[in-house]
Amino acid sequence: MSARSNILNKLRSGLAGSIPRPDDFDERLVTEPWQYAPEDRITRLRNLMEAVHTEIHQVSSDNWPEKVAAILAERDLANLVHAPATAHGQQLAEYWQQSGSSVQLLAYDRPVEEWKEELFWEVDASITGTVGAIAATGSLVLWPDRHEPRLMSLLPPLHIALLKASEIEDNLYAMMQRQNWSAGLPTNLLLVSGPSKTADIEQVLAYGAHGPKELVVLILEDA
Amino acid sequence: MSQRIPVTELTSGFRDRAEVALADGQLRTNFRTAMDSLMKKRADAFPDEEEREGLRELGNRIKARALSRLPDLLEQLEAKLTDNGVRVHWAETTEQANEIVHGIIQARQGSQVVKGKSMVSEEMEMNDYLAERGVECLESDMGEYIVQLDGEKPSHIIMPAIHKNRHQVARLFHDKLGVEETDDVNELIQIGRRTLRRKFMEADVGVSGVNFAIAETGTLLLVENEGNGRMSTTAPPVHIAVTGIEKVVENLRDVVPLLSLLTRSALGQPITTYVNMISGPRKADELDGPEEVHLVLLDNGRSGAFADAQMRQTLNCIRCGACMNHCPVYTRVGGHTYGEVYPGPIGKIITPHMVGLHEVPDHPSASSLCGACGEVCPVKIPIPELLQRLRQENVKSPAEGPKVKDGGAKYSRKERLIWRFWQTLNTSPGLYRLFLWGATRFRKLTPKNVGPWTENHTAPVPAKRSLHDLAREHLARNGGQ
């Protein structure tokens, strides 16, 4: 007998004579305490994310690349990895060309194996989109794909994330329902609620454990 | 059951370790400080009692529902994961699980493994197993890394190195990594970051645990703050997740309350920095992520707990650690005293199913039954009730058919006879009066040494006159009124 059938048989005999419990999931318990007026969502998100060292700026959807350049200049960074095939990646690249920025614009356009050393050690910053955010917990929702691979939001010490103000949901349940997650998830769906941190030594909070040391969110207001 | 090991020999483990721990001032300060802070954080994270209780009830129902369909859900999970390209393996024992993991590593000719935090891999003692076979297995959670560097085991399921203070970590890093000794926590973490980043880059295989396995979508959900979990599951070409069979939930929406309960109960955080939901290996056109993803489903005694409807509730556990943070025993003796992978109240009720009561005969009774663990449990496991049940199973005779692995570990005919005598004495009025007569007159003859009681207390001595006697006199004096 295989381990699989042994385990399943033991479990089935443990359940002999019992009936499955009904699904009485009460969604009000996870939605009602976490509802906000539309104008309060950004405030809630900001408060929670800023409390865990996230830097947040509200910018207009046509001139945000300027803000990106300013953020990089403040920190005196040498390069930024972006996703050239996305709309925001193109907008950024256009701005870069016009402004003649000295910050090198890198593209994550080949498999990680081809530039692992560089990606792990030499990339200063990354910029990715999000598919929305959750006000209740102060979380960004990232949906990595071919154009914006998973490691983009993890390896560089600075991660800049773009968030459309109109895509902030009240709570995780509402987000799941609106985007119909159960119909199909990507290889790796992520909720990101701040820069990487740890409290493993004496419960003292330290940022930049293994992932980004800094997270900057640009909330794009419709122009 | 011919060779019953004497109880005193078995009990020496926990008791001896407890005595050492209790005398260690530094250790007690480290735990007291940490547990006080964790209790406050949890309380602050649940400011609304009604909301908290509603959520705990919902959490309990979700786990009870999942367990009531466990075999079906495991099959559904397997089917969904397989569709998504994840390979699913089943292991009844930790030995089998280790063989599976080693087999996957061998097939890739791997020699370096980097691990995210996983308590199931601790159950398996995977690091040792792989090390013996020439595979380096490095912990990447900062706390686990510190503990591994010092050749220790975790003392808390969420905060593995909580028994150490910064000075102890500073000395450890200095001794083992050759870095300059610094007491600055930020600097210590940056040392860990630099050392481990190279390992993430070079590793052949990443190993992780699973917080929730979602049957509906075939998704493995992991929570963490550091990013080491994401690293371990994204950077190496192979990802192996190991988990207990009880971690499966039916629907994606079920994780909404469970996630909230988990992070708030564990750390007082509304959510962890990362919630990492993995539904498959790298797709053909994707540029990163592991080419292979494996899930190892481990039983290791869980189906034994499952077989009994009362003890099945043990499997509700979502591993938040709140029960140990609130436990007066754990706070005083620390995690290592338990001598097993899972310390504290949850350890006391889950470990007997894994290793048998012979190994942990003192676990069920290392509790004052104050009830704090049951009150804070986010999925409402009645831990005190289960401890009492295990105490009963612990002293059952072989004829009484104990229902837990190695039940009856503390069964003693002598003790049973004493209780039987005590019962007869207290239920036969004539005999009882005779006993009182003797006890009050020969009170000076009671022994000065009555076992463990007299280690810290004076021996009990019967009063000169019994309560019966006093009552009779009182009634006679006030008779008829």
Secondary structure blueprint with pairings:
The complex is a heterodimer of chains A (223) and B (481).
Chain A: H1 3-15, H2 28-31, H3 38-51, E1 54-60, H4 64-75, E2 79-82, H5 87-99, E3 104-107, H6 116-121, E4 125-128, E5 132-134, E6 139-142, E7 158-164, E8 168-169, H7 172-178, E9 188-192, E10 197-198, E11 206-207, E12 214-221
Parallel strand pairs in A: 1-12, 2-3, 2-4, 4-7, 5-8, 7-12
Antiparallel strand pairs in A: 5-6, 6-9, 10-11
Helix pairs in contact in A: 4-5
Chain B: H1 7-22, H2 25-45, H3 49-68, H4 70-84, E1 87-91, H5 94-107, E2 112-115, H6 119-124, H7 126-132, E3 136-139, H8 142-149, H9 166-177, H10 185-202, E4 205-208, E5 212-214, E6 219-224, H11 228-234, E7 238-244, E8 248-249, H12 255-267, E9 274-278, E10 292-298, H13 302-306, H14 322-325, H15 328-333, H16 344-355, H17 372-376, H18 383-394, H19 413-427, H20 429-441, H21 453-456, H22 467-477
Parallel strand pairs in B: 1-10, 2-3, 2-4, 4-7, 5-8, 7-10
Antiparallel strand pairs in B: 5-6, 6-9
Helix pairs in contact in B: 2-12, 16-18, 19-20
Pfam family, one (chain B): LutB_C
Domain 4Fe-4S ferredoxin-type (chain B): 307-337
Keywords (chain B): 4Fe-4S, Electron transport, Iron, Iron-sulfur, Metal-binding, Repeat, Transport
